[in-house]
Each structure stands twice: as structure tokens, then as C-alpha cells.
Amino acid sequence: xxxxxxxxxxxxxxxxxxxxxxxVGQRLVGALGESPYAFQFVIVDQFEPNAFATxxxxxxxxxxxxAQMNDEAELAGVLAHExxxxxxxxxxxxxxxxxxxxxxxxxxxxxxxxxxxxxDMINSPIEHAGQVYLSSYSRGQESEADAYGMRLANAAGYDxxxxxxxxxxxxxxxxLLTGEHHEANYLDTHPTTPKRVADINKLAGGLTxxxxxxxxxxxxxxxxxxxxxxxxxxxQQGIFQDNLFLSADLGLSVTFxxxxxxxxxxxxxxxxxxxxxxxxxLGSNSGEFxxxxxxxxxxTKMRDGTGLQPDVNRxxxxxxWPAHLVRYDDASEAETVSLYYVFLNTxxxxxxxxxxGYEHLREALRSSVMSIAKLTPSQEKxxxxxxxxxxxxxxxxxxxxxxxxxxxxxxxxxxxxxxxxDDTTVRGSNGESLKYAREERYxxx
Length: 445
What we know:
This protein has a seven-stranded antiparallel sheet, with helices on both faces. By secondary structure, it is an alpha+beta fold. The protein contains 15 helices and 18 strands. A hairpin with a 4-residue loop joins β7 and β8 (252-255).
């Protein structure tokens, strides 16, 4: 499951922030006493506020949820809740969304001849991969995790009532994100019902807290969040501009067919024809072989495993880059279905295109493969996304004036929600720092 999460959603790379997350998590684990689990705490590259656990003790928190945190106790409350799902052996009713399930069924032998690695690419669930990983529990399990989690947070020296603050903040911010597309979020699996909030408040009132200093106070927490990529697209993984994919790290661009469903995961960037009649995925290779070498290895594997020989096997050029095409055709039905492999070497990186589709969509697939090109300077400059930043608000300065001064992409109302401020008319006091997001250009390391 942890490997599926890494492949389908991705791990967010911020060593300092992950070290802090792990430190808070291990402080909670220390309050557990003896435990058979070796807990690990990981940031997943997901915009939606989300947190989930695998049965083996991996605890995942999305970058979107971290951006919501205004106090270490809020984060501890979320982590303690997820730890409790593991320790109480809650069995997930739904782990992920059909990771590895086929997108569509094509006739004949074409599906069966795909090798395991390339089959993983074709079978990636494009409609859900990299969006929201769900672990759904019963209402009773959620209540139990609340109770055990709050006791655990309290034992570690955190205010257990902060869990309610975290949930309120998430609910408020999601409500204000009108127009943003959220297929699912943390509140889908952890709903804030009036009874649940009442239960949290009742349980917190019965706990005696022996507070311990946080590992980071509010100002220090904000500085750890400073620089977090906040928006739907993390440019570290490349971005889509409509149907144009741009990656500064790989130094390339690809134009996918217009109006196809697109998805970007750590393993592949892909697109699917709306009716499921064609699929195209681009993934990276280890680079140990030439395009001809990769093609020869594939042909041998296919021949030995299925007895099939390619219908097309030839070298060609994409721009100045050497490439090699291997194609298998299936004419068992009225319209031919083809499976394509295009191996490509840019000099800097080695890639494989895998495509499958009906004959009438061949030109669309060919055009996309041939569109791969070196990133132009203007394209590189256009790779931008939203990034979390921290700035001081001046004494007496309104949130609206402050937002304009720091060029915030967030409205004053949303700034208030993300910073745990109840009143949008509040004015700054001495030495107060606030979170906001602004659009910034991404520069590859």
C-alpha cells in the first residue's frame, strides 16, 4: 500500500518539514508505550486536506492539510487520530480507489501482451490517481479513533481539544474554496457532525492536561510551512497548461490531445480519450540502454512470453532525439486496435511512451508522441504555481490592506480562515505573522 501511495500520489519533497512531522509523530508514539508498529510519518503531494493510515503504521498527511495547521496541537490531534486507527486495528472498508484496475477493455491479445512494468502504466487509474486516497471507516471506528487519539494527544502533552479546531479550520477553508474542484477531502472520511463535535468537547473536558512545550510554537510552525507549494499543481512534478505538459526538472514539453482526461503522477504523465478508446502515458527509464536496446529487450520478452512478433519495428527521430517504435496490431474485430511503445533518449533522460487505441485515433496518438520537445526559455518562465508564504502584518493594518500589500492570492476572508482568525475585520497587532499564498515561478534545482 505504501508503494501504491508513492506511485499514485507521490511523496512531497521537503526534508525539513518532513523531519518536523516525524518528530511530532514520534512524540505521540512515545506516549503509546509498547507497540508492535514501527510508525512512519510521510507528507503526500496532495492539494486536498487529507490524512490517512495504512494498517502497517504508515501515517500520511497531505501538503494541503499541513497548510491548514495553525498550532502544533492541531497537527498532533490529526496524527493521534490516524495512529489510533492503526493501533485499534480498524480494517479499512475502502483502501484507495481501484489502484491497478484496468481503465478499459480492448479486444483480442493486445492487453495480454503488455509487460508488467508497462502494464502498470497502462492500468493506472487515470480518473483518480494522484488525487485523493481514501480510507473509509465505520462511524463507530471514527468515534473510537477520536477517543483514543485525544487521550494519546493528551498523554503527549497536547491540548486534545485542538482536534476540533483543526476540523473546524478545514471545514471553513473548504467552504470558502468555491469553484475549486475537490472530488473528496478529509471531511469525506472524517465528517464534522454536531454529535462528533459535541463528543470531542465532552471527552476533552474530562481529560487532565499536563502540558509540555511544543516542538515549534506558532511562529516557528509558520516558518516551517514557508515555501510549501499550495495549489492544485506542484511544479516539482511538472504542470499542465490546458493540454500542454511542462516539466522544468525534465526539461521537456508534451502536447496531449485536446479534451482528453489528463493526469500527472510520480510514475507517469498520461491522458485518456474521453470514451476510453485510447490511452497515452509517458514514463522515465533508468537510461541504461539505447532506444534500440530497450526495443530489443521488449520484443524478446513479448516473443518469449506470447509468441507475438511486432507489426512495426523501426528507428526514427523526434526532432534531434533518437527514438524507436515497436507496434503490435490486433485486427480481431472490425476496427484494428494497436499497442505502441516508443523509446526515446533526449541525451539527458530516457523515456518510454506507451499508447493503446483504436485505428481512428492513431493520428492523435502519433501527434502527441511527436510533440515532445525541449523546454523553451519562455515555457520555462511560464511554469508557475501558488506557494505558501509568511509575512508580518503591521499594527492596525486590515487583512484586506495586508493581502494587497503582500500580493496575496487569497482573499481577506480566506486568509482569516487559513490563519484561524474568526473576524475578518481584525487588524494587526505587534509582531504578528500570517500565512498567505502567492503565485511564484518554479526554478528547477
